[in-house]
Structures are given as C-alpha cells and as structure tokens.
Amino acid sequence: MNAFVAILRRDLRLALRQGADSVMVVAFFIVTTTLFPFGVGPEANILARIASGVIWVSALLAAMLSLERVFQTDYEDGTLELLTLSPAPLELLVLGKVCAHWLTTGLPLIIAAPVMAVMLNMDQDGFGTLMIAMLIGTPALSLIGAIGAALILGARRGGVLVSLLVLPLYIPVLIFGAGAVEAALLGISAQAQLQIMGAILLLSLAAAPFATAHAIRQAVE
Amino acid sequence: MHRFAKPSVFLKLTGAMMPWVVALTVILTAAGLYLALIGSPVDYQQGNTVRIMYIHVPAAWMGLFCYVGMALCGAMSLIWKHPLADICARATAPVGATFTALTLITGSLWGEPMWGTWWVWDARLTSMLILLFLYLGYIALVNAFDDPERGSKAGSALALVGAINVPIVKFSVDWWNTLHQPASVARMGGPTIDPSMLAPLLIMAFAFTGYYFIVLVLRVRLELNQRRIRALQLSGLFDERPVASGDHDELAYDQGHNAGASK
C-alpha cells in the first residue's frame, strides 16, 4: 500500500510541477467541443440534441491524447525498469499510475464538462447525470487506456497506434455514458446505464492492472 | 535445431494433409456455389437477394472464428511461449480481417434493397465493425516493432483483451432489439431455416473453413521458411567471418550481434 501511495504522490507531484499536462487536456477538450457548433451550425435545439454525445466523444479523445505520457517518459528514462524490479507488485504500481492519470485528466474533464454542456445548450436535467456518468466512466477510460499505453511502449508511431488500439475498447463507455445522459434528458431513470457503466468500471479495475503490468514486463524485458 | 522440432512436425503433417484439403475445398466451393446460386429456391420475400446470404453468413462465422482462433493462439503463446502459436496468430489476423470486411460489404449490398439503406447503426453491424477495427489494430501493433517477437507478444495481449467483443457480436441480436435478424441456424430448438437453404449455407461454411485452413498453412509455411533462410544465412555469414583485423572488427561485431539477436 505504501508503494501505491508513493507512486501516486510521485506522479501527482510530477504532473503538478510540469503543470501544462492537465491544462492541455482540458484545453483540448474545450477546443474539440467548440468545433461542433461550427460544424453543425449554431441552432440551439440541434446542439442541445447532440450535446451529450459531443461531450462524451471529446472527453474520450482528450483522455486518449494524454495516454502516451502515462508510461512513455518513465519507459525512456528507465524508471519503468526499476519499477518492475521493485518488490512491490507491479499491478499495484500500475494502479497507482492510473489513479494519478485519472486525477490529473479525468477529474478536470468532469469539472469542465458542465461548462461545455451549458455552452451547447443542454437541458439542465442532464447535468447531474452527466457528471455522475463521467465520474464512473472516466476511471474506466484511464484503466482501459493504460493497457494500450503499455502495449505501444517502444513501438514506431506509437501515438497513432494507441488510438487504433484503445478507441474500439472505449466504445462501450461512450454508448452507455451518452445513453445515461440521454435517458435523464428524456425524464427516464438513468439507473440501468449507470449500473452497466459501474460494471464496466469494476471489470476493467479487475483486469486492466494485470494486462498492463504484463505488457510493461514485456516492454522492459 | 530443437527450436524447429515442433514446426517440422507441423510442416510434415500439413504437407500430407494439404492436397486432400485443397481438393475437398474446391469440391465444396463448387458444390456450394452451384447450390447457392442455382440449386436453391428463391426466397418468397427477398427474391434472389437471399443468395447474398450464402456468402455473408459463412464469412461472418469465419470472421468470429478467426478471432477466437487468434485469441487462443495468443493465449497459447503467452502461456507456453510456443513459437508456432505466435506465427499462427499473426497469420490468422489478415484472413479474419478480410472475412470481416467481406461480411460488412455483402451485408451492405444486401441491406440496400432489403432495408433500403447501406448501413444502420445497429448493435450487430456496429459490433462487427468494431471487430474489424480490432483486427486492424492487431495487425498494426504486431508490425509496429523492430523486434518481431515483441510485436507478437504485444499482439497476443491485445487479442485477448479484444476477445470480449466476440460474445457481444454473437449475442447482440438477442440482447438488443436490432434491425438485423436473430440467429436462425445455431439456436436452441433447432434451426428455423428451410433444409433446402440450410444445405448450401453449411457447405459454403465448410468451404470457407477449408479456405482458411489452406491460407493459414501457406502463410505459416512461408514464415517458417523465411525464418529458416535467415537462420541459414546468418550461420553462413558467421562461419565465413573474416579474420578480425582493423576495419573488419566492426563488421564481425555486427554479424555476431545480428546472429545473437535472432538466436
């Protein structure tokens, strides 16, 4: 547990000192969302209709964009090799890194999402569900994304590759995340969608650290 | 040479089976195509369009079958580190991707006259499209490393993670209310499809399986032979290594390094 806290604190401190990373993710999220009114036209009712999907897609892309740095710098300077040699289980360390990634990217996205929802003219009924859905969904994105980020270590054109690997696996989160908000906007209970998202989160929490640790061991071999 | 011990058995076995499988596949394909295009009745609702199904459904089965095979090979290569499993997984991916693409294309051609649209965002269609993306991701990942071994290992892990999509494709028509028709062959309580249409469908499925087997064996043989040629070339270089003196040192080191890397 100490190792988990130590790696979490280290990654958070690195993210805070370098600073730009979290800001970049949020900026990317806002810019991408802003593109849609230009693309589909500024009519308020159309934007309100597509708001939940647009916010989710932008959040997915923003989360994916930040994946590369989860392990890449540690891989390049050899930290990852030392981590695999440490007596603490690598799965736990991976979980710590994923937690740090979520705190520095997922959490800012959740805070930025309602702002974009207002700008896209989304109905107020959906705000609460949007934030709850993102609270459940974004940790799953970080967990699933970590597998992809670990698999591409040492690959050529890793950045493009990670999108091809991770985005298909993100689709369930997108479907149920957008579906939950949609249900709330229609005045139906979003409980079913949120429960499925919870199931996805638990499944990825159980499986992703092991798959990621396995991929890292191969990369540093 | 013990590295090739198991592959040599594979080569011998498949070499003996090959002519029979090729002959059987040719006969099955010819019979299947005849029954599918001429010998089977016209559907009372779909007319002649129903004949697309004899390509579409077996291709879809094969798309899933190849993915399951790829994931199993990936698991085998991760658990037992069997080199042949790696090669099989790599060889299966493009075949499976082609079958999946064929499914989507023929389905689209069928959907236009029947549903009035080339594409709907239906659970079955979408999950099949994701399957194609998973294949493409696997192929891209496997080829993205300078060291092919590392590529295979990363690919095996991805194939296993992506295997979660296979049951989603299979049961999507049961779990969701979809435009795509539910299962009519492999279902509880026997097939609901008429025997005159079931026969060509099954024959085509076996013909496709035979085709997959042939292509798989050819691709695995190619890979094994390429590796063998490389090993022979490297050992040849090693023996004829010039006597180390001055500028030859670097060359000898390079060769030794290469030979060491490829074992």
TrEMBL record, chain A:
Its main location: membrane. The keyword Metal-binding does not apply. GO terms for molecular function: heme transmembrane transporter activity. The chain crosses the membrane at residues 20-40, 46-67, 99-120, 126-153, 160-188, 194-216. One of its GO terms (cellular component) is plasma membrane. It is a multi-pass membrane protein. One of its GO terms (biological process) is cytochrome c biosynthetic process. It is found in: Cell inner membrane. Keywords: Cell inner membrane, Cell membrane, Cytochrome c-type biogenesis, Membrane, Transmembrane, Transmembrane helix, Transport. It comes from the Bacteria. NCBIfam families: ccmB (TIGR01190). PANTHER family: CYTOCHROME C BIOGENESIS B-RELATED, HEME EXPORTER PROTEIN B. Required for the export of heme to the periplasm for the biogenesis of c-type cytochromes. Belongs to the CcmB/CycW/HelB family. This is Heme exporter protein B. It comes from Thalassospira xiamenensis M-5 = DSM 17429.
